[in-house]
Amino acid sequence: MESVEQLHSQVTSVASATAARHSGHSLTLDQIMHRFGAMLALNNINITIEPGEFVSLLGPSGCGKTTLLRIISGFLNPSSGQICIDGQPVASLLPNQRGVGIVFQNYALFPHMSVWDNIAYGLRAKKVARGRISNKVGEMLELVQLGHLAKRYPSELSGGQQQRVAIARALAVEPKLLLLDEPFSALDKNLRLDMQIEIRRLLHEQGVTAILVTHDQEEAMSMSDRIAVMSQGTIHQFDTPTNIYDRPATRFVSTFVGTCNLLAVNFIGQDGDDYLLQAPGGGRLLISTDTDVPQDRPLSLAIRPENFRIKTQASTHCLPAIVEIAIPLGAVITYEIRIAPDTKVKVTQPRIAGTPALEPGTTVYLELASARACSLFAAQDA
Ligand SMILES: Nc1ncnc2c1ncn2[C@@H]1O[C@H](COP(=O)(O)OP(=O)(O)OP(=O)(O)O)[C@@H](O)[C@H]1O
Ligand SMILES: [Mg+2]
Q1: Whether the CB of 214 sits within 6 Å of ligand 1
Q2: Has residue 382 got a pLDDT over 70?
């Protein structure tokens, strides 16, 4: 039987873990708009990030990610709109009063300062007592596992080590929010993965609310509680990684996140709650969707390569097609398959060892893996 002391320590450790998870702060962006001269860089940004949440801003170059971080941190005032931390407007606060830590893409360490001094910098600036600075820097060095390099200068560190110093420096002042602007872009693939895992763990332990800017979709998918997918100054979708992938809200999201085939289709009828669509090449598909289907307009059907099934026999709802190229990729095989003179699709299937790939020129019939394994958009929408 467990002793009272053991039970107590279990309860308190659970309680403190829970406290860590909820010790973060919330951020609300309300109708944020920003213009650089005539150029609208951000247009009506509305999101609320929960305490302790890890959110990625994902979008192509120039879509406004860094601009949004600069606005949150207070280095740039938005043309209009409101920013609240824990429900309180922060417009009147200077950057150093907002409790927002930033890790820039290039880490921006002070080259003439040791690792220790870099981490202590923000605490000294806040005039924290010397003893507390020493404790805090020690704690941070332990957290990022760089205690043995405390006396080194940035030029004597690897990229990954410099990055950990930058993160330790940002976390040392116990920010309410941590903003990370493409912090992994200079790292090679393996180190990048190690750092992604480490930082996710670190922030989770500390219960810090964090926003990561990236244009790497795998990074966003693997690290985030939720992703805001941005294009041309607007947020197209703010949702969990799985929903973003499975239920893209717009055509842009369907093609920007993961690979997607976009087929020009027409509505030809309804079968109960399902919609019958005509695809290029004359094939028909029956799909199920929760979104409204505009029946009198050209439509775009988005289907991910893994959501097709390749059959050798025709069925009621399938796309007759001809295999053009087979590309074996280890665990999967990707085919390029022509369904009409001007329309090819990519189809990915699991690859079974010893099973030969389909030959170019083979006639096949493509079916949907499930009536819901697709998304439908009005063709003229973004
Ligand atoms: N100070 C500025 N003056 C004028 N235009 C600017 C300024 N800063 C950014 N822009 C413009 O605003 C748009 C958004 O820029 P931003 O830096 O936010 O993009 P980003 O999404 O961070 O891109 P990247 O992935 O390339 O870093 C771009 O078109 C950019 O040229
Ligand atoms: Mg940027």
Answers
A1: no
A2: no
